């Protein structure tokens, strides 16, 4: 976790205190069920909750014990005994460390994902508001970085909105993947712990029961989880790169919010740089870097080895915390993005009407010219405009092979023509609201 | 596509013939709808289907044209004109290359995924059959490569079965992700092609309509697709690594099928090597290697650039074809895996009863010894066995601090104790059938 | 290998014929030395060379045999016996398949790398020629996509030249890494083959002796090799992205070569798209994708397993062939890049003199104003220009807090001031020739 | 940086204090040279050093300023002014933030790499000592996890030693890659800072001058750096996996050190798990995960963007600190590895002499039998042994097609035969010392 890219709410999920609290609750819930099943005394379970429910666990003390016993869960349980008293010896009966660790991790990942889902909602809300605001703001669409045909700025944002809707579904699915509880004992046979304990704890924690755990929860789940986060990060990158492009000096169709007092460059006081979206581009790379190690974690040996553990101590907090930060930052950038419709209009005119070349092409072929001849005629005149020799409409009118009258040619240069299906797309993306209440 | 890891059925999906046939159908279906909408003559659409439906497109000729025009779809359309005649000029009206290319790719990926889904079914069937067969075959469960506690070989396989059920769901979800059709014209505005055309073609091809395409189908879908394949590959690796471990000389609990006539080593005629599962381990790495470039493809510039294209020419055939091959190979290995229950039994005995250490620990604590003292007593005696000094039960009986009588100790070494919940797990994984009809 | 991104020379390195020829030569050289050591008859070695030297090996026949014996090297040797006769039984004495396969791979990788080194020389030559040509062509330098300060187009290219010099060194080092020969027999003990045989074959093939092989050449070498290729691919991407930016409609400072007859877009005849550099961007992603599986190949089990083999059948040809293609394509793009100095000049003027803001800042501080006050004064006036309210120099002259006279302010806007160290940098990069003979 | 995998010495390299101290020194050295060149007053440079040399910079205060100005280097310089006084306004003349940041990063990476080089020396020393100790300790060599032929444990370790020698060279090369200083001002033209300043600071810091910086040091260097670290991590993984295999219950040829008081499992007191090498396996995955983002950082836009920065805030400390920890841990494991020669001997005998099958094969072919017939004869008898039907030598003596007398067969089962070239390999790897002084 890089402090400057970490929100407190996200960091808290991974704080030792949070972890020990969840661990205690898993053990204590399990004790309740074991007491009910007659495996341990009911009184022990009661005392454990009483003394442990609001206990503040001491990470330093646990570390100290771990240095001696070299085992993290045994260290935790020893500390619980120090706090709770002798009843704690009834905890963890028939369970293994992984039962506690893996289920704790599931709870933490669920909480982290809940934050991410909230974050995506912020991004979606910002995108929707700005998309509706700029639903009919004309700008040029670009393929290959080259002016292609007119579109609207709202349409651009609607596309990103649809992508973040998918991001939301992917996160929901990712949460579903990792929200399982395993309390199955050594090598997962339930030899010393009843399946009813697992079912009870799962229910208390809002998790599903892991159908087959082999002491550990299978790591294909976590691989799928981090892959989902990485796709979301890539979607962030796409929008960040779009904004970076739009802020380029020569384009300047939109700009990141720039605060009074902010300094763009230590050496060049005139600079206003898209540093937030550049930062998001980098954070996307960081979040994606969790995917490969998460996949390498899947093939644990036999019923389990512990090679995944060090990886997860890194990627679980890092990827979730940085993605949380990135989504929040992105929502803020979209929300406060400074949009310059006048520059969009200026850029749209830059190519002297060439953005209408396809309509001319289609009109020519519909007039009966072959596709190849039409293409050649349009391209020939376009290249003259490209070379700065004049205006596209003028050249077309003057070209004898262009079999369209001036009256036929002129309407082909109408901008509105391109926007007749904006409503269709908005209805697809935003539903009725998107379709009908642009002004709202 | 590496020929030796390629099945013909999978390669056919990516053959130029297949691709051109799909491209033609997209264009011809679009023409039907355009004719209905009055954009092009009905007769043209009829002739196009008549002459093109069963045409054999000539990839060499298309390549030849492309070398001149340096544009793949224009080359294709030019060739269609050569075959279909002048009516072909009505094709592609208002469409862009990406409308055809991206929708074609969607059809190919759907077909490739359908093969993968069939393959996973083969893996599942093999795993289920062998899991039921070995439901109660005892073997040692290992954590960290070290003997832990008894389990059954059927339980091992049931775990992999559950993982491949998830693999199947992931593939189904991945197919859903990429099964969309986009025919939205330049920069995705439908300026020159009606949304009805897209809806019609999508329906004909069994695809969903892409809600917002920006000339291209957004690549977050493909990133999610390849991520899903990579997780499946990782699950293959886990099972492959398990089998490789089991075939180790010192373990030899199972062995890959070994054909008469096969040579294990050019130099050492005694060798029988797990080369199929080692191969699967490598193929898993290959399939996973598609993930990073697929994610780097997401952030295309503005409405599209074409950097994704070269990547996809590689990873789309390679990842799907190799995964298809790997799943088939895996199904075969599982189906014909040679299992040695007698060696499993021998290995289970190897540690002189140490695999029962936990039960002794639990019994001691239930007798009232503190957890720490119990642990120390068990570990002390276990280490003597570990050093080869004798038998675990004997040492325990002789240890004055072990507060269990011989009559209490002996039943703790019963193997059957560990298998009492095998049925529970089988019922979770295989449902009624798994639970009740092991012998069937 | 994607055919359209494959040069014949590069593909030939990986052709079965090439491979079998190298395999034969390794076996035959080894036979020579074994004959000299008295292990096999001298006559056998002579006959083997005589009959095999110019033999055309039949890959189909070898495949056929492999399908039976399921072992590639045994299949090859069996075919050699068919061609060479009974003397072939003296081949491969005490050797293992890996001795032949790994050493063959080393020869192939060396040859592939020699092509890459030639390719980089082409890139370097093109970059140098264009750098010298545009040594003093002014253009704006951009940080964050925002105009910063003036530079020259030659300086830009000089930076890429220096990077490709490093690329060349990395490739040379990568070649050194993998240019080793191992003929050490089963598990690498030389039990049945003398180290002298290895030394002799290594010498004949121009390879170093692998100090310790464990039947296989250790795969850290190959991991380092593919990592080096991936860094080179990333350098290609950087230059490709630069050109894509320069070709943007709004920038248009340079353009990829565009052939007569070429079609930029099937729908929009006016388009001229940077498709070559977009393609290079994609190819860079593909080449990089070899790194992770190559690294996962390092940890083979014990003295070897064969999981690396399937990976290498993919990445060895793919990464080298595609990188070869990409470097050649890049050299061509640089060589024929269309540069527009007049557009560079126009863009440089676009910000109304803001690119000189740093000089004003420095002059103010040298006049005694504090750094903070100077920065505030410059930024305040710059923001007015940014908002299009007027000209930078004019605002500065009018600002009472700007403690510089008009006579002091005006020379601060001299473009030449920024180019006084171009020669210094060129001398560093191109040496004397770069420094002194720009016009030559 | 995961605290439990972080050594203090390694963390210190990345501490804010360290960073600010280096930043100050770069600025102050630059001031010295500027004073010499007459750009700033000599007295200012003197005072700056006097007041700043031993200053303790206040990271909290700098953070506070950064929150206002949103620029890290300006925040630092503002704080320097607070500490040093008004002379600080002469600092940073004509420089950019990247001049300071990138050069600071270079110094930090150099220091981190110096630690890694020391660490590798520890690994090498441990490997060498243990290799010499076990130079002639027989054990079985395994290919594909299957017993192949005899080797010695020393030979295994010698192979890893050779690999870590390469690791050391790769780290040295990686250090060379990133040990450059850039002080070239905005967009790298030296317009406002003389190249002599860069040369002077580089010399003071022990760095090379970056030939062409474009405001930033080109990131291909850092990509190559992290790739090198990743290859080293993969070599760690290979040795870790070897040890994990050797510690398997069925193999138990070696064991990680296990301290009195350590607990292997919370549930199973008998366990002694190879958790250190499993941990190393995971750390290797973590370190490798830096490679892809580092490569994605190369293609910065134009003269620079800042997307690399967030990535590097993560991967620079994480990869170096975790690799440092992993190398130290590995050195400790090797140093204290518990080796069981008696178990090695036992395992070597396990296959009833099959490990000698190649010698029999060779002897048969040298007796004149064809390669194919020899192979069939040996394999036929080996498979009987494999099936547990008896002893290899016995079967061979009884087989009439085996044309070797008992007197010829028996010496083929001599173990020493396989070790005759151990000295050769040790001489290659360890030089004279390795060759001659095993006992020393």
From TrEMBL, chains A, B, C, D:
One of its GO biological process terms is:
'de novo' AMP biosynthetic process
Family matches, as Pfam families: ADSL_C, Lyase_1
Q: Which Gene Ontology molecular function entries are recorded, alphabetically?
A: (S)-2-(5-amino-1-(5-phospho-D-ribosyl)imidazole-4-carboxamido) succinate lyase (fumarate-forming) activity; N6-(1,2-dicarboxyethyl)AMP AMP-lyase (fumarate-forming) activity
Q: What is catalysed by this protein?
A: N(6)-(1,2-dicarboxyethyl)-AMP = fumarate + AMP; (2S)-2-[5-amino-1-(5-phospho-beta-D-ribosyl)imidazole-4-carboxamido]succinate = 5-amino-1-(5-phospho-beta-D-ribosyl)imidazole-4-carboxamide + fumarate
Q: Which EC number(s) are documented for this chain? A: 4.3.2.2
The Adenylosuccinate lyase C-terminal domain extends over 352-430
Alphabetical GO CC annotations of the entry are: cytosol
Question: What keywords sit in the KW lines?
Answer: Lyase, Purine biosynthesis
Q: Output the InterPro entries linked to this UniProt entry.
A: AdenyloSucc_lyase_C, Fumarase/histidase_N, Fumarate_lyase_CS, Fumarate_lyase_fam, Fumarate_lyase_N, L-Aspartase-like, Pur_lyase
Involved pathway(s): Purine metabolism; IMP biosynthesis via de novo pathway; 5-amino-1-(5-phospho-D-ribosyl)imidazole-4-carboxamide from 5-amino-1-(5-phospho-D-ribosyl)imidazole-4-carboxylate: step 2/2; Purine metabolism; AMP biosynthesis via de novo pathway; AMP from IMP: step 2/2
Q: Which family does it belong to?
A: Belongs to the lyase 1 family. Adenylosuccinate lyase subfamily.
Q: What is this protein called?
A: Adenylosuccinate lyase
This protein's species is Phenylobacterium zucineum (strain HLK1)
Q: Which gene encodes it?
A: purB
């Amino acid at each position: 976790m890089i402090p400057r890219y970490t929100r407190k709410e996200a960091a808290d999920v991974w704080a030792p205190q949070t972890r020990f609290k969840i661990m205690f609750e898993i053990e204590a819930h399990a004790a309740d069920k074991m007491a009910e099943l007659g495996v341990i005394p009911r009184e022990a379970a009661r005392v454990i909750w009483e003394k442990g429910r609001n206990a503040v666990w001491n990470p330093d003390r646990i570390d100290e014990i771990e240095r001696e016993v070299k085992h993290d869960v045994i260290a935790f349980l020893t500390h619980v005994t120090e706090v709770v008293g002798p009843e704690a010896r009834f905890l963890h009966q028939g369970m293994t460390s992984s039962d506690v660790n893996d289920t704790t991790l599931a709870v933490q990942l669920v909480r982290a994902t809940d934050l991410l889902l909230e974050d995506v909602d912020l991004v979606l809300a910002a995108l929707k508001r700005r998309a509706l605001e700029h639903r009919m703001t004309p700008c040029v669409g670009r393929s290959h970085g080259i002016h292609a045909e007119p579109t609207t700025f709202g349409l651009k944002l609607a596309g990103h909105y649809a992508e973040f809707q998918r991001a939301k579904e992917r996160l929901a699915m990712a949460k579903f993947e990792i929200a399982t509880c395993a309390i199955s004992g050594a090598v997962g046979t339930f030899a010393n712990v009843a399946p009813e304990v697992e079912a009870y704890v799962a229910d208390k924690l809002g998790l599903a029961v892991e159908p087959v755990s082999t002491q550990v929860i299978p790591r294909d789940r976590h691989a799928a989880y981090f892959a989902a986060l990485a796709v979301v990060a890539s979607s962030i990158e796409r929008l960040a790169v779009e904004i970076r492009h739009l802020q380029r000096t020569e384009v300047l169709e939109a700009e990141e919010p720039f605060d009074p007092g902010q300094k763009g460059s230590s050496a060049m006081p005139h600079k206003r740089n898209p540093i937030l979206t550049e930062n998001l581009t980098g954070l996307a790379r960081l979040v994606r870097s969790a995917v490969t190690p998460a996949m390498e974690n899947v093939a644990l040996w036999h019923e389990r080895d512990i090679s995944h553990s060090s990886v997860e101590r890194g990627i679980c907090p890092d990827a979730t915390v940085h993605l949380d930060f990135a989504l929040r930052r992105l929502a803020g950038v979209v929300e406060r993005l400074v949009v310059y419709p006048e520059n969009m209009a200026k850029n749209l005119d830059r190519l002297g009407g060439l953005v209408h070349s396809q309509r001319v092409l289609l009109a020519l072929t519909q007039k009966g010219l072959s596709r190849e001849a039409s293409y050649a005629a349009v391209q020939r005149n376009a290249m003259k405009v490209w070379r700065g020799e004049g205006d596209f409409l003028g050249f077309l009118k003057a070209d004898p092979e262009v079999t369209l009258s001036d009256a036929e040619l002129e309407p082909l240069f109408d901008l509105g023509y391109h926007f007749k299906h904006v409503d269709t797309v908005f209805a697809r993306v935003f539903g009725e609201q998107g379709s009908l209440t642009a002004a709202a």
